[in-house]
Amino acid sequence: MRNLLILVLLLSSCGGHHDRYAGFLRIADRDDVPTLDPAHGYDTSSWQFEDLIFETLVDYNDRGEFEPELAREWIVDESGTRYVFRLRDDATFSDGHPVTAEDVRFQLTRVLALQTGSPGREFFRSIRGADSCNAPGCSISGLTVQDDRVLEINLIHPDPLFLHKMALPFASAVPRSVVLQRGEDFPLNPVGSGPFYLAERVPGQRLVFLPNPFYDKQRKPRLQGIVRFVGVQDDLAWMRYRSGQLDVVSLPPAETPLVLRDPRLLPLLRSGDTLRTQYVGMNCRLAPFSDVRVRKAMNFAVDHGKLVALLHQRAAPARGVIPPTMPGFPAGPTPYPLDRDRARQLLREAGWGQGFQATLWLRNDETAMRIAQSLQQDWAAVGIDIRLKPLAWGPFLEAVRHDPRVQMFLLGWEADFPDPSNFLEVLFHSRQISANNHTYYSNRQVDELLDRAASVTSSELRLELFRQVEHIVVADAPWVFLYHPRAFVMVSPRVRHFRLHPWRPPRLQFLELANQNAPH
Predict the structure, then answer these.
(1) Cis before 519? omega within 30
(2) Residues with Cβ within 8 Å of residue 515, at least 6 apart in sequence
(3) Closest Cα to residue 30, out of 243, 250, 304, 300?
(4) Neighbouring C-beta atoms of residue 469, cutoff 10 Å
């Protein structure tokens, strides 16, 4: 009866949108996109659409290799501290103005300026003079515009990851005059040089993207447009996909057996490993999680086999912070196997033998709720009473990032580029506490090892230093280490060229649509 009611509502209320956007790539999510400002976006949802609107100097191909984007060429001197980027002559913003080297320089100063509050600031602090940047547009010695097409960047020391960092959306080109004119309204009506521009945004309903009319003709998008519907729960998104009203959806875990058995649906499944770890973060400054024994007890109480079964085997138990698919990083046994007697013993040693109550914050979606409820049962078995606090994606991220009263949160981290530093340094260095270290974890030895690794060019030595950091962090247990998920995505038969990227959101700008109907 419930499914019948949903179907009736679907056909009666969404048919108009279906007809209006029939020629568009149609996708959906329950939550709105947190931001379209590349100085602030640091989540997969925001990056998905910032990648449509903006361009960086360099980008990745599907194999994860660097390729030109805004820059047609670049050179790096022998010292590894001087980079010179030459921009394409035809790069143009969606408002018709040409992209200049100053537009890239200005964006980097936005990210570096403390008043911006960008979570990407730490990535670019190796630029000479970066710490003297007080406001967007500041003049620093490491950023030099040689002419409209040439940007020179000088670093304090060699950074083996600098090109990776320049491929992050934080380093996008933005039109300086437009940003200064619109101020805080820029994310609501952004202007970039990417393949699409934001044509319409109806909060809580949809975002509509149309091709940038000034984009490179040889790489011009083949899509008529992209519409991203908002407020669509997982079960409804799956029904819309099955009825031909959505083109790309994440496969709900509960539907996995159906798809694997159906010869019509199985060819439409795209799956792949991710550089991702799902975890529960614990606030190391708040009791009882300020005690490492409690944090370890939380880990020993978790039944990882049950979690993987809930996900229909679409994940592997976490072996620490770094996913086993990270290049050059060895896999090992699960560091905290299920051992409830050990969990109870640790709680007694910490003075919490009678248990305690805490609140777990999470995104309000079906999968997250199922995982949280499973964890809730596991912790209850050792006397810990966990209350669940589900929120929409934007408010949830805001609370985790800025509210020090959050005790625990269920979240995942996916690497921005294939290097362990993008987990270990970004999430566990103490200087990241005001940025991405949401557990308020601090260990001087970890900081020293990470600082050393940041300036080492030997890949073997860097990996050894990261292994030492991983070992310490796992022992300190600021996280409950849960699982490493695999991506499962369903595409409509009319979608062409859809590919999963190893560590970035799928590149929607490369898709095209054939004149076919979705499966029923």
Answers:
(1) no
(2) 494
(3) 250
(4) 27
Cα 390 from Cα 82, distance rounded (Å): 47
What pLDDT, in 10s, does the model give residues 345-372? 999 999 999 999 999 999 998 899 999 9
Closest by CA to 174, choosing from 194, 154, 188, 155, is 194
Bridge partner residues of 269 (DSSP): 490
Q: Are 233 and 246 in contact (CB under 8 A)?
A: no
pTM of the model: 0.83
341 burial class (0-12, 13-18, 19+ CB within 10 angstroms)?
Answer: exposed
The CA dihedral of 362, 365, 371, 372, to the nearest 10 degrees, is 40
Cα-only R_g, the chain: 23
- Give, as one character, the DSSP assignment of residue 497: S
Residue with tokens 């179907």: 7
CA pseudo-torsion sign 444, 449, 450, 451: positive
**Residues 322 and 277 sit within 8 Å (Cβ to Cβ):** yes
Query: How many CB atoms neighbour CB 369 within 10 A?
Result: 15
| Of 225, 202, 229, 201, residue with least CA distance to 213 | 225
Handedness of CA 476, 480, 484, 489 (dihedral sign): negative
CA angle, corner 454, sides to 108 and 136, nearest 5?
Answer: 15
At 457, the amino acid letter reads: T
Candidates 224, 198, 218; CA nearest to 209 is: 198
Please give the mean pLDDT across all residues of the chain.
92
Distance, in Å, from the CA atom of 42 to the CA atom of 45, rounded to the nearest integer, reads 9
Long-range contacts of 464-467 (CB under 8 A, 24+ apart): 466/322, 466/329, 466/420, 466/421, 466/424, 467/329, 467/330
Centre a 10 Å sphere on the Cβ of residue 505 and count the other Cβ atoms it contains.
Answer: 17
Run of H or E residues at 229: strand 226-230
Model confidence pLDDT, tens digit, residues 8-61: 333 334 444 557 898 999 999 999 999 999 999 998 889 999 999 999 999 988
Predicted confidence band at 217 (pLDDT cuts at 50, 70, 90)? low
Number of C-beta neighbours around residue 43 at 10 A: 18
Helix (H) or strand (E) holding 64: none
Classify strands 143-147 and 150-154 as parallel, antiparallel or unpaired: antiparallel
Sign of CA dihedral 230, 236, 237, 242: negative
Spatial CA neighbour of 84 closest among 152, 176, 148? 152
Confidence of residue 465 (pLDDT cuts 50, 70, 90): very high
